[in-house]
Specification:
Helix content is 43%, strand content 13%. With 230 residues, the protein is of the alpha/beta class. It starts with a helix and ends in a 14-residue tail after the last helix.
């Protein structure tokens, strides 16, 4: 709890006004465990109110993308801000499984809006970028880690992050903060400056402010979309 409060204060100090927490969950979580996540989240909100921390806190989750991923509609805890719209899904680290397209497209058919979390950490060859481009064309949203852009995970992943940005495949950037030291929330500030310098202020505003706000409010994100068949 103390570290979470410290991270939130650090976010406030760099101008952050809203944070979406995304604890790692899997679809086989028992109801009691998801209830525990909600309980901790509510306690964190209470503590923020006591300390008069003026930041809007939202609850979501980061879901493991698995071949046996079932329907999400009956699991409201998994949605970002309980919106029944946006889902945050994570590829296996360093892998881009062959079943990815089938699972994501099935979620689209259900009327959901999947967001693929930091795929730059799983792209190993040119065909992976082509696959990601087709997913993007079909309506999948792409989130990039600020640390990937700044080289926190190595040159290879940084190169992939820049390539995704150059190909205009990224819909939003996030901190993917885990603590106050090795993966702090404050990295967002440096990432924003990098995007502003390399791609322009308007692009930075869309990726860091406009699109994240629309997602948390369950609004549609305008994008060119061409249906692909997998």
């Amino acid at each position: 709890m103390e570290e979470a409060i410290q991270m939130i204060k650090e976010g406030r100090d760099i101008g952050i006004t809203a944070i979406c927490t995304t604890p790692h969950l899997s679809t086989n979580f028992k109801k009691t465990k998801t209830e525990k996540v909600v309980e901790i989240f509510l306690k964190l909100q209470e503590r923020m109110a006591q300390e008069k921390i003026d930041i809007q806190l939202y609850l979501g989750s980061e879901i493991d993308l698995r071949e046996d991923l079932s329907s999400m509609k009956d699991l409201p805890c998994f949605f970002l801000n309980h919106t029944q719209k946006y889902l945050f899904l994570e590829l296996p680290l360093g892998e881009f499984p062959s079943f990815t397209e089938r699972i994501l497209f099935s979620l689209l058919i259900e009327g959901l809006s999947p967001i693929l979390a930091h795929p730059e950490r799983s792209l190993n060859q040119e065909i992976d970028f082509e696959r990601l481009g087709k997913l993007k064309d079909s309506g999948i949203l792409i989130q990039l880690n600020s640390g990937s852009l700044l080289g926190s995970f190595g040159k290879k992943i940084q190169k992939s992050a820049l390539k995704l940005l150059e190909k205009d495949l990224v819909d939003l950037l996030a901190s993917d903060a885990h603590d106050s030291n090795s993966r702090p929330i404050t990295i967002l500030s440096a990432a924003f400056k990098r995007i502003k310098n390399d791609f322009g202020e308007e692009k930075a505003r869309v990726l860091f402010e406009e699109n994240p706000k629309k997602i948390l409010q369950a609004e549609d994100i305008e994008r060119k979309m061409r249906i692909k068949y997998f």
